[in-house]
Amino acid sequence: MPVEYAAAPAKWLPGGLNWHKTEIGPAASRTPSAPRKARITNVQIVDFDDDGVNDVLVCDPQRNAVLWYQPAKMGWNEHVLARDLQAPAHATLVDLDADGDSDVVVSELGDIWPSDELIGRLVYLENTGANKEFRRHLLLDAVRRVADAQPGDFDGDGDLDLAVAVFGYARGEVLWLENRGDLKFREHRLWSRAGAIHVPVLKQLFSGNDETIAQTDIVMLLTPHIVRGSDITESDLKPIYIGSNTTFSLGGQPPLLAPPAETPAPGGAPGGGPATATPQVGQQTPQGTITVPAGSPVPGTVVVPNPPPPAPTAAPPPPVQPPPQTAAPTAAPLTTAQVTPSPAAPEPPITSPGIGSAQVIVSPPAGPIRVGQGPYNIPLSITGAQRLSMVTLTLTFDPRVLRVRSVQDGSFLRSGGANVTFTQQVNNGRIDITISRASDATGVSGTGLLAAILFDAIAPGTTTLTASGTGTGPGNTPMGLQFRPVTLTVQ
């Protein structure tokens, strides 16, 4: 198992400890055929074989295996305790069958990436004592990602039970598996909360007194994480009027600090300039000359129209020249006009009938997509939604180019702490998703994340991600949705 260290500083601080780097694992694991891509989730120093010498127990989700490294004269011997485990997170030594040797309980995440799918498991590796072989038993299945399991006699019946940390992602729990004998366990839920990463067991908690405590307690270690952002709408960002220095109030429109500018009267000066306040006699205007009418009993002025401009004099026609006596001209060759094709109009969006027209957006990765790299996260988000209670989505793609690793729930329909049912199904180039709020009378409006799909690029080529679906509001009211396809190129 190769390891990597950061570059050492130029000068170490003085101290009494000297450190020596040693690589654990056979030399074959460091050849170019086995690149240094180990993803180690847990390392323990234990005396696995009870020979008085410390061994190393390792969980490697890159190889999906639990490994036992035993010191040897020329390095370390690697023993694979189990293969084909799904992202092992922790291996716990426990003599679960009480036969005097070390067994192993393995906590499986199911996927190293965030997920709320029921992909976690708890596997018991029974030590057979023959040629370092272990018999596999499934203790817990179809739960969210399992991060840890620790033994303890929690009910005081003389056998070992198990405390299990179901980390999950947005949802998780802590379980107690009650030992019923013959490797049969009854499941009890102790706490429903995401992020349980360890469940250390203490024989005596706060026992510094004269009273004897004969019970086993559980300490739960949680990893806090944000599962959704704040629900900020456009109205939350608008300014609020709180009054003036003398008058305080909340809300409403602020008063005007100056009267509005007067609109100029029609017929003002051309070009938008101010009109003349008092016309002057004899003033020239485009309409005519201002004058006082002769003999009028009414004081005032009138505008005498300007005389019409004189008609332009027609130019004399040019003299006619007789045509020269030349041979009949030959017909000019026809020329073909070059027509520049107009750019193709964008494809019309795929729409579903209903109220409004919220847009469901498929966001491709920002960088290039290459085979053997990734995985690549493609979010499905919505914008402009109005009182949405349920969404059904279908996404099609080319399964020869992309492969689905996981489908994850978004946070949009969980706004306000509502209970949401999220179901998904992947089948040969098609993903069907249904997200529904339980007993919802208001719906959700705005913008947010519906789901996120984790893809692996398996072959070069081009594929189009085509989304479609329907939306409903409270009372099963149809809500309109719009979709646009996205084309991806895998290199």
Strand content: 35-45%
Helicity range: under 10%
Distance between the termini: 31 Å
The biggest beta sheet reads: 11 strands, mixed
Order of helices and strands: EEEEEEEEEEEEEEEEEEEEEEEEEEEEE
As a whole number of angstroms, the C-alpha radius of gyration is 40 Å
Instruction: Report mean pLDDT, rounded to a whole number.
Output: 77
Number of strands: 29
Low-confidence stretches: 268-277
Our count of helices gives 0
Structural class estimated from helices and strands: mainly beta
The backbone outline, from C-alpha atoms, is elongated
Task: Write out key terms for the chains shown.
elongated, 491 residues, mainly beta, eleven-stranded mixed β-sheet, single chain
Can you walk through the features of this model?
- The protein is mainly beta.
- It has no helices and 29 strands.
- The strands form seven sheets. Strands 19, 20, 21, 22, 23, 24, 25, 26, 27, 28 and 29 form an eleven-stranded mixed beta sheet that branches. The protein has a four-stranded antiparallel beta sheet with strand order 1-2-3-4, with no helix packed on it.
- A hairpin with a 3-residue loop joins strand 27 and strand 28.
- The radius of gyration is 40 Å and the shape is elongated.
- Residues 268-277 have low confidence and may be disordered.
